[in-house]
Amino acid sequence: MNFLSLFVLIPLVMLAGLWLSKGIKAIRGVMVAGSTALLVLSVVLTGMYLSERSGGNTAEMLFRADAVWYAPLHIAYSVGVDGISVAMLLLSAVIVFTGTFASWQMKVQTKEYFLWFTLLSMGVFGFFICIDLFTMFMFYEIALIPMYLLIGVWGSGRKEYSAMKLTLMLMGGSAFLLIGILGIYFGSGASTMNLLEIAALHNIPFEQQCIWFPLTFLGFGVLGALFPFHTWSPDGHASAPTAVSMLHAGVLMKLGGYGCFRIAMYLMPEAANELSWIFLILTGISVVYGAFSACVQTDLKYINAYSSVSHCGLVLFAILMMNQTASTGAVLQMLSHGLMTALFFALIGMIYGRTHTRDVRQLGGLMKIMPFLSVCYVIAGLANLGLPGLSGFVAEMTIFVGSFQHFDAFHRTMTILATTSIVITAVYILRLVGKILYGNPVNEEHLKLTDATWDERFAVICLIVAVAGLGLAPWWISNMIGDSVLPVVSQLMR
C-alpha cells in the first residue's frame, strides 16, 4: 500500500473508533489521536517531498501509485503529490487538528458530530492526493455531503435554510463539474482518466475545450465563491458550528481554486487563454464586492464570510493571470487565507460562546474582559489586511507582482482594481477591532465573562504560529510551490 493512502485510511480508522466509543473522553481521545497522526503524517510527507526534490527527483508527481478500480471506464485509484498538494495536505491537517480542540466543549450529539466532521476531512484529504479525475470527483462529493448535516443539525440561526442553500448550490456546481469531467474524458480519446496522461496527450479539440472549460471552471468556481455564485458561502459560514466554519473556509473552499488550476487550466490550456478574460472580470468583482460587503455587515461571522469571498476571489484571479509568480501567489493565498480564516472563526466561536451574540453593536470593551482572545483577534485582523511579517502580506504581494507582469491595459486595470481591496479590508478590520475590543462594554453582563480555556488557547496559538511562520519564513514553501506550478503554466504558455 502506498503511504499516501494513509491520509484516507487514518480517517477511516477514526470513523470506526468513534463508532465504537462510549463516553465523551473516548470520543475526544480518538479525535486527538487521529488528528495528531494526520498532522505528523503531513509534516513527514513535507520533509520527504523536499528531500526528494533536493536529491534531484524532477518527476511532476512524486510517490505515485495506481490501482485499477473500474476497468471498463478506465477509472483507477491513482495517487501522487507535488508541491501544491503537499502544501494543501499540510494546511488541512493543521485545521483538522486545531478544529478538534475548537470543538472540545461540544455537548450535543458529540459522537455523531465528530463522525461527520471526520468524513468531511477524509473527502478533503482524498481529493488532494488523487490524480484520477473520477476519484477526485468522488472525494469532492464526500467532502460536500456532510456539510448539510453539520450545519443543519449543529448550526445556529437560520441553519436549515443555510444548509439547504449551500447543498443545492454546491450540488448544482457538481453537476457542471461532472459534465466537464466527462467532456474531458471523451474529448481526450476516452483512454484514461489520469490527469497527467490526459495533459501529456494534449489532444482535446479546441471547439470542445471552449465548451468543457467554462463548465469545469464554473463547477469548481462555485465552491471557490466565484461571483455571482457566492451567496451560499456567507449564509453557510454564519450558521455553521465553529470547527465546521474553520474547515469549510480554511480547506473546503480551497478545493475550488485547486480544481480550477489542476483540472480546468491544466487540461484545457487553449480555452483558458481564450476565455480567461470573462472569468477575470467575475473574479475581480468577487474581490472588490466581497470586501465592500464585509464593510456593511454587523454579524461577526458574516463579516468574515464576505472577507473569505474576497480572498478566495483573489485566488481565482491570480490563477487566471497564468504566469508562475501569480500562480505561486494563488497557492500561498490558499494557505494564508486557510490559516487566518480558521483563526478568525475559532475566535468568533469562542467570543460567541461567552457573550451569546455576534452583533458588533452589542459588543465592546472585550480587551479588558478577555485580553487573550482580544489580542489574538487583533493578530488575525492584521494578517487579514496584509501586514508584513504575517502570511497575508506574502501571499497578496506575490499575486500583485505576478499580475503586474502583464503589460496590456486590461490585465493592468483589473490588477489595480483588485489592489483596492487591500484598502477596503483595512477599513472594515480596523473599524471592527476598534468597535468590539476597545471602549466601554455595551452589556454590563459581559464584565462577568472569563477568558479562553486551555483547549481554546492551544488551538489559537497553533494557528497564530502557523500564520506567523508562513509570513516570516515563506521561502521554503514558496520554492516548493513555484516548482510545482511550472508544468501547468508551461501548458498555458505553449
What's the topology here?
Layout: H1 6-20, H2 24-54, E1 62-70, E2 75-81, H3 83-102, H4 110-129, H5 133-154, H6 159-187, H7 195-201, H8 206-223, H9 232-239, H10 242-252, H11 254-267, H12 269-295, H13 300-319, H14 324-355, H15 366-369, H16 371-384, H17 391-403, H18 409-437, H19 454-472, H20 475-492
Antiparallel strand pairs: 1-2
Low-pLDDT sequence parts: none
- Counting DSSP E segments of at least 2 residues, the number of strands comes to 2
Strand arrangement, largest sheet? 1-2
Helix content bin: over 70%
Structurally, how many domains make up the residues?
1
What Rg is obtained from the alpha carbons, in whole angstroms? 21 Å
Largest sheet: 2 strands, antiparallel
DSSP strand content: under 5%
Q: Figure out the total of helices.
A: 20
Give the overall pLDDT as a whole number. 83
Name the shape in a single word: globular
Plain-language structure description:
The chain is 75% helix and 3% strand. The protein has 20 helices and 2 strands. The chain has a two-stranded antiparallel sheet with strand order 1-2. Helix 3 packs antiparallel against helix 4 (110-129), helix 3 (83-102) packs parallel to helix 14 and helix 8 (206-223) packs parallel to helix 12. The longest helix is centred in the last third of the chain and has 32 residues, at 324-355. The two termini are 37 Å apart. 55% of the residues are buried.
